[in-house]
Amino acid sequence: MNRITQTQNETKFIEYLKAQRVAYSQCKIYQVFDVISVLMAIVLPIIGMYRTDIVNYLGAFGVLWTIIYLVTENYRKKKTEQGAKIQEQFDTELFEIPWNEILCKSKINTDTKIDLAKEYKGNDLSNWYSLEVDSSLPKTIAIILCQRINFSWELKLRKRFVTFLIILLVAYYGIFIGFFISKNIGIYDILLLIAPSLSFLIYSVQNSLSLKNHIKSKNDTLGQIDEILNEYSDNGEKPSKGVLRQIQDIIYTERTVPEKIPNWFYKLSKSSNEDRTDNIIKSIKAKF
Fold first, then answer.
1. Residues in contact with 102: Cβ distance below 8 Å, sequence separation at least 6, in sequence order
2. Cα distance between residue 60 and residue 122, in whole Å
3. Which of 5, 187, 208, 262 is most solvent-facing, going by the fewest CB within 10 Å?
4. Total number of domains constituting the chain
5. What is the DSSP string of 191-210?
6. pLDDT tens digit sequence for 95-138
7. What is the per-residue pLDDT across 218-249, written as a single tens digit (0 to 9) for each?
8. Region at 10 (left for phi over 0; alpha for psi -120 to 50; beta for the rest)
9. How far apart are alpha carbons 269 and 266 in whole angstroms?
C-alpha cells in the first residue's frame, strides 16, 4: 500500500541524504569553538589565580573570544538551514506531499546538492526510515510513522544532554566560586577571573534553554501524532494531507535550529535510540 521503505534507497534519495549529511557536518565543524570555550573556561581562570599580573589580559581575551564565538553562530545557522532544506526535499518527495514555499522558501538548487553529495564518502545511508514501516501499511499511516521517527529519534538524547549541561555548569561555577571565596578573593577579582569563561556560560545556557524548548515541542507534537494513530487504530480514520503537511512544517522548523549536541555525545546513544524507535513502531503496529 506504500513504497516508502523501498523508494528511500533509490539513488536520487540517497544523494539527498549525502548532501544533507555534508551540510550538517560543515556546520558541526564549528563545534571546535565550543570545545575551545570549555577548555578556556577551565584553564584560563587557573592561570589567572597564579598569574595575577595578567588577569586583565585574560579577561579581555575572554571577551574577544566570546565575540568570535557569536560570529560563528551565523555561519552555523546558514549551514543548518541548508541541511534542513535538503532533508525537507528528501521527505516531501518521498512522502509525495507539497513543498511549503511560504515556510521553506526556495529549494536548494541541483548543482549545490550534487556538489555537497560528492563530498560524502560513506556508504551507510540506506534504510533511513525503519523497515518496520513496511508496505502493508496505508500510505498516510506510513508517512505519519516516519514523521514520528523524526520527532522521537533524538528526544531521549536531548534530555540526557540537557541534564549533562546543567550538572556541568553548576559544578564548574560552584567549584570555582567556592574556591575563590575560600581564598578571600574579592567580587571584582572573581568576575575578572571567570570572564574568560563567558563563552562557555553562553554556550551552556543557550543550549540548555533551546533544547528544553525543543523537548517540550517534540513531546507536544508526539502526543498529537499518537492521538491520530489511536484514531486510526480505533476507528480506521486516516490523517489528511493537510495534517501531514502541518506536522512536516514543525519538523522543518526544528531542523533549522543549529545542532547543539556534539557528535561524541550523539554516537554514545545512537544504537539504543535506533532500537527504541523500532520497538515503538512495532508496538503501534500491533494495535492495528
1. none
2. 43
3. 187
4. 1
5. HHHHGGGHHHHHHHHHHHHH
6. 999 999 999 999 999 999 999 999 998 888 999 998 888 888 89
7. 888 888 998 998 888 888 899 999 999 999 99
8. beta
9. 6
Query: Helices 31-50 and 198-235 meet at what angle, rounded to 10?
Result: 140
pTM value surpassing 0.70: yes
**Secondary structure letter of residue 126 according to DSSP:** S
Report the alpha-carbon distance of residue 96 to residue 100 in Å, rounded. Answer: 12
Residue whose entry in the numeric block shows the C-alpha cell 496505508? 138
Q: Is the dihedral of CA 104, 99, 146, 244 positive or negative?
A: positive
The whole domain housing 21 covers 4-285
Contact 2, 158 (CB under 8 A): no
Residue 164 amino acid letter: F
Cell of 129: 526510515
Please state the φ and ψ torsions of residue 90, each to the nearest 5 degrees.
-60, -50
